Amino acid sequence: MSKPIPAINRYKADLRELNFLLFEQFRLGEILGRGPYEAWGEDEVRTSLAECYRFVREVVGPLNATGDVNGCRLEGGRVFTPPGFKDAWKQLYAGGWKLIGVSPEFGGAGSPHCVQVLVEEFITGSNTAFSMYGGLAHGAGEVIEIFGTPEQRETYVRRMYDGTWGGTMNLTEPQAGSDVGASTTTAKRNADGSYSIRGTKIFISGGDHDLADNIIHLVLARVEGSPAGTKGLTLFIVPKIRVNADGSLGKPNDVSVGAIEHKMGINGSSTCVLNYGENDGCIGWPVGGDEKINQGMPQMFRMMNGARIGVGVQAIGVASTAYLNALEYAKERKQGASITHWKDATAPRVAIIEHADVRRMLLDMKARVEGIRALAIKLAHHTDQVHVLENEDPEKAAYHQGQVDLLVPLVKAYGSDQGFRVCETAIQTYGGVGYTRDFPVEQYCRDSKIFSIYEGTNHIQAMDLVGRKLGQAGGANLQAYLGDIAKFVAKNKDHEVFGDEVKRVDAAQQALAASAMKLLTWFQSGQMELVPLNANRFLEMISELTVSQLLLEGAIIADEKVKSVSKEHPDYAFYEGKKHAALYFARTVLPGVELKAKLMLDEDRSALDIPDEAFATV
Known about the structure:
CATH superfamily of the domain at 15-150: Acyl-CoA dehydrogenase/oxidase, N-terminal domain
Number of helices: 18
Shape: globular
Domain Acyl-CoA dehydrogenase/oxidase C-terminal: 294-465
Order of helices and strands: HHHEEHHHHEEEEEEEEEEHHHHHHHHHHH
Radius of gyration: 25 Å
Protein name: Acyl-CoA dehydrogenase
Organism: Pendulispora brunnea
Domain Acyl-CoA dehydrogenase/oxidase N-terminal: 82-163
CATH architecture of the domain at 15-150: Orthogonal Bundle
Domain Acetyl-CoA dehydrogenase-like C-terminal: 482-611
């Protein structure tokens, strides 16, 4: 009989690192107090982060391991979440944590997006499965806020933002995974203006649960007579329980749970098969009304973009706590003698943090976690600038929005790939015990694998980058990005500490620009098959260039700040850590950008030319 998993918190975060990013590197203080962030100052930000960190450690974090073990259960057609989730849900919303970035119009605190991202990191890092329910409700509510009719906004948005109702997104079907255009879910218009919905959706996160009074499903379906493919899809509001004109709940809406998926991780999140209209009694309404028929994909992309950023934030949260737990273990676990006494069998055992390879793994995790978090905050910073400047300087706002668009696939794909890698490295740091449930990193690793798959697999992100984002605005967004890197290089290439590493950034930037031209050549010359073959590689290149530049930017700030700090002050060690993480990444990861560029130029076709039969003889 296995021993029970205790309800204890194992989540860890470094508030000093978060405040450094906000106030020292990205200078959030420059926009605090300006529209639409008039109500926010530095004290409010710091206090909010500290209080949210306390909340997740006391309420959400202790449910992570127990939720993993207990999972969700389907009884009598209803899904029940793990013990403790319902009470945590109430406290989550009572504390206002899911409303912190919501507009005051809908009862929110209207925080900068940078702050919202870090609050989400706390929630998702402490309990990824639990965070799924609120994250999806928020995303679905945001779609209705932006695209819905006034009546739809009034009926649904506030209730979805404040946790009264949940929400989901429904794209995937048994025969239509990434190929969304192959959807067969149908919608037939009724005399009263509603639509009868019929079809099956799979892999629906939070598809049913007992946390909220109702669940508002956003469902892609094809209206009779609409074109084939994605151009003929419409997004429908389909409540689990019908909603009366006054906002009260009516009768069930013929939405049934076919099954709960049994997964590798995030077991506390109910991933459901949903059947719509099995008894011809499911009705829905187009988001935005009848004039938005066949506009489902642009609307859904709004939610998907937010979800993709959210996946990157999930990866950061889980990877960060995996690293910090591994660091704590490495400081405490004594194993083996120092390499300086390797021949002395009587030498005292030392903490494993003193062993060179463990130090390498710890620094590798530190650099990746801090670099990817900086990447996410960079995206959030651009978003905040859009909101501040959209009325006073539309041209600058457009520049910032262009950078947001360019960075979304990086945050999602590179963040999720590297988040899983960090969790894997954390297990390796622990050694054998890391593979057991006695420590949290094995769950972190299982939970984090889904990040590279859902909300569009990472190859889809790479194809979005090279097929759409590089050419947006006639290539101006990419040129602006490269221009920003060039300005950083020009300013810092002669830095007394980091000058050589900044020159590596310059070399990587030139390699990236040449690779972008190579992609364009393949498009124009009809060598289209080489584009998907190299898309993932290109996404890694631009991500590693961006992360290295951001780490070095932070290190240069730290190098200046450390000069006025005594060695006894905690900030001295903190700033030294920033410097060494940047040096490590620039010296050991960044040079790979030039190598990958060379590989692209080589145009290796091995994966294309191998016959299907040659993969194996079985």
